[in-house]
Design a protein that fits this description.
The protein is an alpha+beta fold and 314 residues long. It contains ten helices and eleven strands. The strands form two sheets. Strands 1, 2, 3, 4, 5, 6 and 11 form a seven-stranded mixed sheet that branches. Strands 8-9-7-10 form a four-stranded antiparallel sheet. Bound molecules: L-homoserine.
């Protein structure tokens, strides 16, 4: 019997973007997760996760209430009053978790888009955000949309308020290209959040406010030199960089090769560099990989423009 199903691709994301801890993120073209939603053969069954692939020697829970995509799906189905239709979900991980690439967020964003589409698209993308963020909350215990929002809607996303999910898409300068290097170190977001002090000295807050304000100005005015001068993290990077062996050398290598800016992607360990051409981003990515290799750390490089599509229905 043929089953009606929807398959989607949900892109990886770079959260924080140096200047905006928990309030800024952008999507990249790859890697990303694939999620499949379908009506199962038995319409009386509750929602189930039927397959999880691509997790290597790790395991993700099949119990929907313990799985980020599962929770996102359940909350959406409850909202729509559709819990008893025998809907099945497949999760195909195409990126490592604990990588700083927004892996759990991508699965949650993909799950809500796939299920919404399967049910005839009753909600728009922005309305799906709340359910996907609830899913991601399972992974790190905090409610923030800086990975989920850009994965869901694409582009560079500013979150005025995580509590009310007041999100805004920012302009994307034409030639921006990103090199993201994922070193083979695993950092759980929960742990990377635990190392952060909850106090910020006033002088540091002033510098950081200047940096994010000028970063946003640079996006609106297409001023890449200003963007480069603005991409500075005075608060989070100094506290987290010791979790990433070789970080200073990697960052210096990127900046010396000509990147506009370089910092930790999300909670790390991935490191991103923003460049003004694809050719440069490739070259910057290679020197970053070389710098990790000098510390005996293997890595993967992804070069991509900013992904402006978000979750795609395949
Ligand atoms: N803003 C989050 C953090 C992103 O840095 O902890 C990772 O989920």
């Amino acid at each position: 019997m043929s089953k009606q199903e929807v398959r989607v691709f949900a892109p990886a994301t770079v959260a924080n973007v140096a200047v905006g801890y928990d309030i800024l993120g952008f999507a990249i073209d790859r890697p990303g997760d694939e999620i499949v939603a379908r009506f199962g053969a038995d319409a009386t069954k509750p929602f189930t996760i039927t397959s999880i692939t691509g997790t290597g020697d790790k395991q993700l829970p099949y119990e929907p209430e313990k799985n980020t995509a599962g929770v996102a799906a359940l909350r959406l189905l409850e909202h729509l009053g559709e819990t008893g239709q025998g809907i099945e979900l497949e999760i195909h991980k195409k990126m490592p978790f604990g990588s700083g690439l927004g892996s759990s967020a991508a699965s949650a964003a993909g799950a809500v888009v796939a299920i919404n589409q399967l049910l005839g698209a009753p909600l728009n993308r922005e309305s799906l955000l709340y359910f996907a963020v609830q899913g991601e909350e399972v992974a790190d215990g905090s409610f923030h949309a800086d990975n989920v929002a850009p994965s869901l809607v694409g582009g560079i996303t500013l979150i005025r308020s995580n509590a009310s999910l007041d999100i805004h898409q920012l302009p994307v300068p034409e030639n921006l290209q990103v090199a993201v290097v994922h070193p083979e170190i695993e950092i759980l977001t929960r742990d990377a959040r635990a190392v952060l002090s909850d106090q910020v000295p006033l002088k540091t807050a002033v510098r950081q406010t200047g940096a994010i304000a000028s970063f946003i100005t640079a996006l609106y005015t297409n001023d890449l030199p200003l963007l480069g001068r603005s991409l500075k993290d005075y608060i989070i990077e100094p506290q987290r960089k010791q979790l990433i062996k070789g970080f200073d050398e990697v960052k210096n290598a990127a900046l010396e090769r000509g990147a506009l800016g370089c910092s930790i992607s999300g909670a790390g360990p991935s490191v991103f560099a923003i460049c003004d051409s694809g050719y440069l981003a490739q070259s910057v990515g290679q020197v970053m990989q070389d710098a990790f290799a000098k510390h005996g750390i293997e890595s993967q490089l992804y070069v991509s423009p900013i992904n402006q599509r978000g979750v795609e229905i395949l």
